[in-house]
Every structure is written in C-alpha cells, then in structure tokens.
Design goal:
InterPro entries: AAA+_ATPase, ABC_transporter-like_ATP-bd, ABC_transporter-like_CS, ABC_transpr_CbiO/EcfA_su, ECF_ABC_transporter_ATP-bd, P-loop_NTPase. It holds the Pfam family ABC_tran. By secondary structure, this protein is α/β, with parallel strands linked by helices. The chain is 36% helix and 22% strand. It has 3 domains: 1-87 and 194-245, 3-Layer(aba) Sandwich (Rossmann fold), CATH 3.40.50.300; 253-292 and 545-575, no CATH class; 302-521, Rossmann fold. It contains 23 helices and 20 strands. A 6-stranded mixed β-sheet has the order 6-7-8-3-9-10. A 6-stranded mixed β-sheet has the order 16-17-18-13-19-20, with helices on both faces. A 4-stranded antiparallel β-sheet has the order 2-1-4-5, with no helix packed on it. The chain is globular and about 70 Å long. The two termini are 38 Å apart. Mean pLDDT is 85; it is low at 280-293 and 577-583.
Length: 583
C-alpha cells in the first residue's frame, strides 16, 4: 500500500478584499509515487491549490484560510514555508525569477547552501546530472536557452531532494523537443527516484502520455480526481469548462454513434489509428491529392525585404556568437506568416530586426521601401509594430483605455479618441476600459497588447509567442483576434511553437534552425515533411500524425477537416458495399 505524502482536508481560502473564496472546501490526497495533473480553466484555483502544498498559502499569500494540510500524516500548521520546502520542490510558471545567481553551479547550490547543508555542492552537482545539465556548471545564466533555464530551475528544486515536485506549466514557452525533454525527466524522477510529481498543465497530449491521474478544478472546487483515461474521456464535461482533451480523443468522441456516457476513448495516435481504420475501411485512395483544390497564389506588394542579413553579438568571453546567418526574405501584403523553429533558432531576433529594435551586423533590411538599419525604433513604430512575448512589458498607464491612448499621444497622431474607441470595439475591450491591464487575465492582456500595436496602423505587425502561457480555450479565441488584425495592418507575422495555431491560421510558414531559414512554403508543403519538422525541433500535431498514418491525401490541420474526411470515407465505404463500418 502506498502511503499518502500530502493531504488537504476541507481547505477554503479567500484572498484579502475578495468577495468569494478562491478555494472552497477542497479535500485531496497525494500518494507516494503519484504523477498528477491539475487541470482547470483560468481562475479555477489550480495555482492557488498548489501553493497550499508548501505553505505559501497562508504564510506568504495571506488571507482567510480554513481547513488543514497534512504532510506525511503530520499537521503543517505552525510549520514555515522554509520547513515545508525541504520536502517539496516548486517550479513556478515564471521560472526565470527563480534563477538568482550568475552561474549554473552557483544557482543550483543556492538553496542547500542557505539551509547550511555541508554537502551543498554534491547536492547541486547531483541535481544537474538528473536534469541533463552536467558539465555546464561554469556557464553564465544569461547564456542559457529558455529550455536550459527551465531545467536549471527544476535542478534548483531538486537540490533539496524533496519528496514532492510541483511544476506550474512545465512546457510553457518551450519548443516541442524541449517540452518532451522536461516531461521525460519528470517521468524518470517519478519512476526511478520515487518522486511524487504534480503538474499544472493545459496540454492534454502530455497529460495523456505521462500522468497517472487528473484533478479537475472548477470555480475553486475540486470537481473530481480520476485516472487519466477516464478523466480525458470525459470530453463533453471538459469542453463545457473550456478544457480540450487530445485531438484524437475529441475526434473519436465526435464520431461515436449512440450514447457516449462512460465510453473510454483513445488518447494517442497509436491507439486511435486502428479505431479509425476499422470505422472507415483501410482504402483511402478514393480521393487523391490531385482532386483536391489547389490554393491560388496571388502576388502582392513586398512589405519587408531582407538581403543577406547577418546578426551576431560578442559574449562575455569576447568571442563572437552568430545569431542570424545570411537571411534573404520577402514578406508581402496580406500574408499571415508563421515563423517556427526550436528555441534559439533566431525567430525573435529576425522580428526585432524588422522592427528596428536590433541593428544587423551585415546585410540590409527594408520595410515599406525604407532602409531600417540603425534607425531608432520610434521612427519605425508607425510602420512595424512589435508585440513582446510578455504583454505586461508594454503596459505604462493605469487603465486599458489609457494604455492605447498613451502610444497614440506619444506619436502625436491625429484623431486619438476615435482611434482608441475603434480599437476598444475591434478587440472587445469596452468592459475592461477602466481596469489596470497588469491585473487582467493572460488572454485579456494579450488582447490589450494587440490593440496597442494595431492602433498606430502599422504595415507589419510582429507577435512573439502570442499564445504563450494561455489555456487552450483562450488560445482558440486568439485565432479570432489574429484575424481581426488583418483589418488594421497589411501583414501579420508570429513567432510560435504552437503547431495547432499555425495549422489553423497561417497562410505561409517559414521554418528556422540555427540562425537560417531552412524551409518556406504553405502549410501543406511544410506539414507534409515530418523529417523537416523534427530537424527544426518541432513536432506534428496528433491530427497531422494521424493523417499521415491513415494515408490521407492531405495533412489535416483542424478537427473539423479530419472528421469531415472520416465521415466522407465512411459514406463512401457504406455506399460501396464495404462492411467495415464498425467503430
């Protein structure tokens, strides 16, 4: 019998000044060796729940706290965050704020050193080994990639050898290869080292592959705690809450005839491939790629031209580090361009060159016919608008209306009031007009940042990871917001790891790797090349993988497109006299 390592009993918590509790009578047990995902829509209480585990609530975040927390059967009442943290490691969503020392080894040793443990260095080196960072102890923090920084934050939590690890959004801001690396390490810590793992996660595909069970939070209450297959098969219940099970699970649910209650669905493409083949027959050749409509390419004006562009910087050791290596590129009016590639490929650097934030070390950049090399960004703000990955970096005023107006007034543009009202209407911000943008949800902040950028009517809008740190339902909303942008700007460019967003939105996909453009084409051209995606550190969506597995004539980018293909095939098989129509 596994023993409970942590137990919450009837925990209720209300933040100061709040009218309603953020947690309501929550009871939960964590057993030794559990690997649990905490799911829920924005504001459901996921992060607040986990902050009760190590005493951050109620000791650091004060408020009205009721109930009891037990650690290995002993009450945590009266124990400090410091005492509880010896047993519990926590990696926050903004993990870079946990990195406090200049070098990797200094940082990983920081916590055990401050606890006065004589073997602090051995603990640090062991944690680096567990996270694949051995040999990097002398590296400076600012030289690490985003994925390496995330691993270092995890190593810092592991240095105390805790029983429980809590990781808030493990794969946020990471490319698919680094995301999988994080989860592979968590699985190894769970299976080989006996750690109890808790992840707060929106990505159901990772939950399906790695987790044992799922806790669902809804309105501050623990709605249920179920085994992972049963949990993710509760498709209708999850969709009502704005939570999206894996694509293959939803596809099977949508195509399920008759009653669905209690049905367990496939969670990955390996399980689902056979199911769909049985349903629709194994011959998919009745429709060929040649019979499908071919998109007509229309030539439009060039908005951006980059000719042999180079970018490099000098490191602290005086060596030159190349970032971009001879970029030749044209972006045209009306395009929806997705820049994809692994962390460190050069996506953000390329966009900052277009916006004039960075100056190339070689080659030329033209935007709307203007050579931008060395021009100050304020000269370009009405032509190229760059929206940062963290929206709050753009906020200056104390209201949403004031944020939009500030940028217009700073550029002394005419008709400021009319433009502000138009942006508030276009991006659905009227209800938030007098709110402080820094206190809004992630999706709301993103809408404000896009309204600020679009207000000056730039020719090209550049968005860095527009769906980072958003839950899946808010990401779906972002597609509509991105479409709205085309009413205000000529060309939209996004840098992203979100293949589902690319599949649904982009008209052109540019693949970057190691500072170079290695592919440039339509979604069909890029997504049909699995080897190219792997080389760029990316991964196919489940629908892309399933399309390839079933031999469909075109890679399906949306659930509607895939289920339409399957339903079409089912009808063709049925009317053709084929009896293979089972589910």
């Amino acid at each position: 019998m596994r023993k409970p390592v942590l137990e919450l009993k009837e925990v209720t918590f209300t933040y100061p000044g709040a009218e309603q509790p953020v947690l309501r009578e929550v009871s939960l047990k964590l057993q030794e060796g559990d690997f649990i995902a905490v799911m829920g829509s924005n504001g459901s209480g996921k992060s607040t729940l986990c902050k009760c585990f190590n005493g951050l609530i109620p000791h650091y975040y004060t408020g009205d706290f009721e109930g009891e927390v037990l650690l290995r059967g002993e009450s945590a009442t009266g124990k400090s965050v410091s005492q509880l943290s010896r047993h519990m490691g926590y990696v926050y969503q903004d993990f870079e704020n946990q990195l406090v020392r200049p070098t990797v080894l200094d940082d990983v040793c920081f916590t055990p050193l401050n606890y006065g443990l004589a073997d602090y260095r051995e603990r640090g080196e062991r944690a680096l080994a567990l996270t694949g960072l051995s040999g990097m102890g002398s590296e400076f923090i600012w030289q690490l990639s985003g994925g390496q920084k995330h691993l270092l934050a995890l190593a810092g939590a592991l240095a105390m050898d805790p029983d429980i690890l809590v990781i808030d959004e493990p794969v946020a801001q990471l490319d698919p290869q680094h995301a999988r690396q994080i989860y592979d390490i968590l699985r190894r810590l769970n299976e080989q080292h006996g750690k109890t793992i808790v992840v707060i996660e929106h990505h159901a595909e990772f939950i399906a592959e790695y987790c044992h069970s799922v806790v669902l939070m809804d309105g501050g209450r623990l709605r249920w705690h179920k085994p992972v297959r049963e949990a993710l098969s509760s498709v209708e219940e999850l969709l009502v809450l704005g939570i999206y099970p894996p694509d293959v699970t939803r596809a099977a649910w949508m195509l399920q005839p008759g009653p669905r209650s209690g049905t367990l669905y496939p969670l990955n493409t390996g399980e689902s491939g056979g199911s769909f083949m049985r349903r629709c027959g194994s011959e998919w050749s009745a429709i060929t790629a040649e019979q499908l409509p071919v998109p007509v390419e229309r030539k439009t004006d060039a908005i951006v031209k980059m000719d042999k562009v180079l970018l490099s910087y000098r490191t602290i050791h005086k060596t030159v580090h190349p970032v971009l290596k001879g970029i030749n590129l044209e972006l045209r009016s009306g395009e929806s361009v997705a820049l994809i590639g692994n962390n460190g490929a050069g996506k953000s650097s390329l966009m900052k060159l277009i916006a004039g934030i960075t100056t190339p070390t070689g080659g030329t950049v033209h935007v709307k016919g203007m050579k931008v090399n060395g021009l100050p960004p304020e000269r370009l703000s009405g032509i190229a608008s760059y929206v940062f990955q963290n929206p709050e970096d753009m906020f200056i005023d104390d209201s949403v209306r004031g944020e939009i107006a500030y940028y217009l007034k700073a550029r002394r543009l005419a008709n400021t009031d009319e433009t502000v009202e138009a942006m508030m209407e276009a991006f659905r911000l009227h209800e938030l007009a007098e709110r402080d943008a820094r206190l809004l949800s992630g999706g709301q902040q993103r809408r404000v940042s896009l309204a600020i950028g679009a207000a000056v009517r730039p020719a090209v809008m550049l968005l860095d990871e527009p769906t980072a740190n958003l839950d899946i339902s808010t990401k779906q909303e972002m597609v509509e917001v991105l479409e709205t942008l085309h009413s205000h700007v000529e060309t939209v460019v996004i840098a992203t790891h979100d293949m589902a967003l690319v599949a649904e939105w982009a008209s052109r996909v540019i693949v970057m790797n190691d500072g170079m453009i290695i592919a440039d084409g339509s979604k069909d051209e890029i997504f049909s090349d699995g080897a190219l995606l792997r080389r760029a550190g990316l991964a196919e969506t489940q629908l892309m993988e399933l399309s390839r597995m079933l031999g469909l004539p075109r890679i399906c980018c949306s659930l509607e497109e895939f289920t339409g293909n399957v339903e079409w095939r089912k009808e063709a098989v049925t009317h053709g006299g084929n009896s293979q129509t089972g589910t």
